[in-house]
Design brief:
This protein is α/β, with parallel strands linked by helices. The chain contains 8 helices and 8 strands, in the order E-H-E-H-E-H-E-H-E-H-E-H-H-E-E-H.
Length: 311
């Protein structure tokens, strides 16, 4: 597999917000956006980690225009405060990349608002973020890139147990959160087109790479690396099927900068099973094609996230 970066156009004069940009492929995305001239806002939960990310990027990209913000996607109050801070400066946003996420806590956990953690963080957190930034996104004629996952290929929305209160399976709930987020992103594009909001919403996914999603995460009850991440690291290191952290960042960058963005495709790796390789557009996974389901996800999500999503 290749670590070659795709070329990016000049992003001078563009302002981007990227969640999950303080490590892994998010850090690569932030670095590349900054190197292309964008002003990059990095909302982080951990300020010390954010400071280290900023220092790393500036060492690699002298003169990088970076701004840290405080954001915990598992707290609707935190999201509202971050959105209010960006709205207060009155400047438009040209790019939003919904990249952050949490994956497969061993036991069911909830957000600060009592929502199952993966659904609340991966999906509702980004729904709320879009809602609070909608005026700035409209003002900038923004592109919204939403990272889903190959897990969305076989996921579905369990409307009878949306919060996994009856039965919890970490992988199933993770897949559901990514299906919901992808359907929301598709409905965002539909509503923008029909309402002339000026926003373009597209989907990307990173394939499979040795990021920190499955590594030890004591804060979610995972004290050690999972067997899966150890296998992924070995396969990636030996160039077998999977991607690298750097290659995993390329689909989102392609989705963010292509001159012909499409909402009816997934931007992901072009290798076998979309696991790794250079970025390209490929067909939507079946669970992401249902427009009726997308409309239902939109309505239920804005209710749970406490945002109007109207202009």
């Amino acid at each position: 597999m290749t670590d070659t970066d795709i070329p990016l156009p000049s992003l001078a004069g563009r302002r981007a917000v990227l969640t999950g940009g303080s490590d892994g492929m998010g850090l690569v995305i932030a670095e590349r956006l900054a190197a292309a001239g964008a002003e990059v806002v990095l909302p982080v939960r951990n300020r010390a980690k954010g400071d280290r990310a900023v220092q790393t990027i500036r060492e690699r990209v002298p003169g990088a225009r970076l701004e840290l913000g405080d954001l915990d996607l598992s707290s609707l109050a935190s999201i509202a405060a971050f959105g209010a801070a960006l709205r207060a400066d009155g400047r438009p946003l040209h790019l939003l990349i919904n990249n952050a996420g949490v994956m497969t806590p061993p036991e069911r956990q909830t957000t600060a608002d009592g929502v199952e953690l993966q659904f609340g963080t991966n999906h509702l957190g980004h729904v709320a973020l879009v809602g609070h930034l909608l005026p700035q996104l409209r003002a900038g004629g923004a592109r919204v890139v939403t990272q889903v996952s190959i897990a969305a290929r076989s996921g579905r929305i369990d409307w009878d147990d949306l919060q996994a209160e009856r039965s919890y399976d970490g992988q199933r709930v993770y897949a559901q959160s990514k299906v919901a987020l992808g359907l929301f992103a598709r409905e965002l594009d539909h509503r923008s087109r029909s309402g002339d909001w000026g926003i373009t919403s597209v989907l990307s996914h990173p394939g499979v790479a040795p990021t920190n999603l499955l590594a030890a995460r004591p804060e979610i009850g995972r004290a050690t690396d999972t067997p899966e991440i150890r296998t992924i690291r070995w396969l990636s290191r030996h160039g077998i099927l999977l991607g690298t952290v750097r290659s995993a960042a390329q689909p989102a960058l392609l989705a963010a900068t292509t001159t012909t963005p499409r909402s009816d495709v997934l931007y992901g790796p072009r290798g076998p099973l979309h696991l790794g390789g250079a970025p390209a557009a490929h067909g939507l996974y079946r669970p992401l094609r249902d427009t009726d389901e997308a409309a239902r996800v939109w309505e239920e999500s804005r209710r749970l996230a406490g945002v109007s999503l109207t202009v």
